Please model this.
Amino acid sequence: MADLTAIILTKNESINIVDCINSIKGLAERIVVVDSGSTDNTVELAKELGADVYTHPFEFYAAQFNWALDNTNITTKWVLRLDADERFTPKLCEEAKIMMERHANDDVNGFTLEAWFFFMGKCLKHGGSKKRKLMIFKNGIGRIEDRKRDAHTILSKGTSIALKEKFLHYDFKDLSDYIGKYNLYATREMQDYIAYLQGASPDINTDRKIQKTRKMKFGLYYKMPKFIRAWMWFVYNYYFRLGFLDGKEGYIYHFLECYWYRYLVDAKIYEYEISKRVNDKELLDRAFDGKAAI
Model:
């Protein structure tokens, strides 16, 4: 066992939680599950597998995970951020153990991992399917940035390095769940974009490739015209980054992830702008009415 606590956030994850926990049972000294009101048997399954289960109302991912860091009595040197639809392989567990021991007392305070991403049962290897996360970090140094969506692990000091082995991102839920989830994500992404326009900084101390992606998102993507940029993002990932090589599953994924989702975000931004103009007009009308009355 490594000197590591794994934190997993759940709600109705009975279809995923068993494989998730079993994949790290030989790695993590302690497994913490923070559940936000499951109505299936997620909690019972997690307890049967030896996890410490807490319950806490869900607001958004970063707030929930940071609550777990602050309220679940973590005493290990390292913390693992793991989603219920993610699994570690035996080779990754072994590499992670070695690297945590090697860097226990230096300024390497986090490890970034990439995923083998499965969609509709198929492992996607091209286009925009590559997922990269800073998942392992030293206790007290890493937290999740305070964002509603696209929240990365940030380090208060030190650096991070990438592990060679990949984790598995394999969700057994169906497209209805995927679409419902991404509708919520689009609202949160819109909120983060509005916060950026109001002065929130997109800069983060995390993995360098993640930093570069974030800079391109706010420095390039959001500078392009609304709606058109969603189509351009799809074309870039599906054609220029060879997403089409992953067959029908690759097309469905890239259409939903790179076009439909990004278009939905833009639609919600546009909706916000309309509502703001209406509200501003109502305020002006009331102001002029007040002057007229005087």
User: Anything to note?
Assistant: The longest strand covers residues 108-119. Residues 247-293 form the longest helix (47 residues).
